[in-house]
Every structure is written in C-alpha cells, then in structure tokens.
Design goal:
This protein is α+β, with helices and mostly antiparallel strands and about 150 residues long. The chain has a single domain, classed as START domain (Alpha-D-Glucose-1,6-Bisphosphate, Chain A, domain 4). About 30% of the residues lie in helices and about 45% in strands. The protein contains three helices and seven strands; from the N terminus they run βααββββββα. The chain has a seven-stranded antiparallel β-sheet. A hairpin with a 3-residue loop joins strand 4 and strand 5. The radius of gyration is 15 Å and the shape is globular. The relative contact order is 0.24. This is Cyclase.
Length: about 150
Amino acid sequence: MAISDSREVVIEATPQQILDVIADVESAPEWSPQHQGAEILDTDDNGRPGRVKLKLKTMGISDEQVVQYEWTESTAGWTLISSSQLKTQQARYTLAPDGDKTRVKFEITVDPAVPIPGFVLKRAMKGGLESATDGLREQVLKVKKGH
C-alpha cells in the first residue's frame, strides 16, 4: 500500500544554493542519516545527477536503490527505477523564493515491496521527511558559510 507525506521548511538561501546542495548527492550521507552512500551513474545535460545508485538504511532495513532525478529551475525530484525494498517511490522538492529566503516543500510517496507495519512505516517516513527538510536546511546553511 502506497503512503504519501509532505513537509515544508524555510531556508535562508536562494533556490540555486539549495538545488546545488541537493545535486551534491554524494554528500547526502553527511546530512541524511538514512543515506549510507550515493554513486552518480550518469548526469543530465547540465551536469546534474541523472541516474543515481543509493545505499539506504531506515529503521534497520537496508536497501540499494537506483533512482532517476529530474531537475527544473524550481524543482528537484526523483523516481525509483529499482529497489529491493520498494515497489515505487516518487519524491520532489519544490522551491519558492520568499524574499531573501526560500520556502521548500518536500513530497514523497513510497510503496513498500513487502508488508511493513503501519507504525514502522510512519516512523520511517517521519525520519525521512525530517532529513529531507531540516537536514537539508542545516547542510545548505553550512555550505553557505563555507564550512
């Protein structure tokens, strides 16, 4: 059964600065506890990640995924190509400038390949949403300061 959720955060940075951090998928393990590793398999015409192989661990469940990223000036998202734990996954960041800040909405839908108790799935989603928003915000601010 597919489950969807979303979360918003305001980041004191430009959409471009935020997209640059999202595009640096190989640094994701530094700011997202679920990410164990990332390898870019190919890039798009702008040099941003296209197909990416991810090693993830959530709630004690390990997974290797291949996802396809899609980029615009105000969005970054991915669609699952293959996974040992999920049937489908769709995720998207939508960025909206708000003065000198940016409002970032993260939306995700996952459909586990095996039955997972609802409370476990909800807790895993909550952790993923927190990393995708609060973790991203911390990383953007760190990069912006040049640390």
